[in-house]
Specification:
three-stranded antiparallel beta sheet; Nucleoside Triphosphate Pyrophosphohydrolase; NUDIX hydrolase; globular; five-stranded mixed beta sheet; alpha+beta; hydrolase
Length: 183
């Protein structure tokens, strides 16, 4: 997936979620910016994330993010890589130690634009996060990276207790529950 195929995927992306639909055009517009895939674009830039689930669709792997101190999906900055699926897979491997990661389908699973607070000399900015549905084996040992305080497989029915009102996580959870019916 390069910049052009990302743009095409975003143009064809459909969601029943109003919030997601409201910023879809911003994602498409960003693909025309030469700096869209580097963190030096201080107004905001693309990131890639993995919504990791087990094959039975009963658990998701979340990380307690060291800088944000919140439970989140695994992912990170593109750092110049225009293939956001590759970014998501690499970040998932680096942040979990998992080798059983498998991309579930060929499309974008979710998109989210969220504010990242200022830290040091980096001002507050947006992450334009493109997310992919990834499966992994739960019995594989987890390796907590320096980017995390913790890493855990969370049962679907406990996710909301952990993430509170994080709408984007709850949206991915809802999508996963709906996709379970389609499997």
């Amino acid at each position: 997936m390069n910049r052009q195929s990302l743009r095409s995927s975003l143009e064809n992306y459909r969601t029943p979620f109003e919030e997601e639909a409201s910023f879809k055009k911003d994602f498409i517009d960003l693909t025309f910016d030469d700096l869209a895939f580097v963190r030096e674009r201080l107004a905001g830039h693309f990131t890639g994330s993995a919504w990791i689930v087990n094959k039975r669709r009963t658990h998701t792997l979340l990380t307690l993010h060291r800088k944000l101190n919140r439970w989140l999906q695994l992912g990170g900055h593109a750092d110049g890589n225009e293939n956001l699926l590759e970014v998501a897979m690499n970040e998932a491997r680096e942040e979990s130690g998992l080798t059983s990661l498998r991309f579930v389908d060929s499309g974008i699973f979710d998109i989210d634009r969220h504010v990242i607070p200022a830290k040091g000399d980096v001002p507050e900015h947006f992450h334009y996060d493109v997310r992919f549905l990834i499966e992994a084996e739960m019995n594989e040992p987890l390796v907590i990276s320096e980017e995390s305080h913790d890493l855990a497989w969370i049962p679907f029915d406990s996710v909301q207790d952990l993430v509170g009102s994080n709408a984007s996580i709850l949206r991915m959870l809802e999508k996963t529950s709906k996709s379970e019916i389609l499997l």
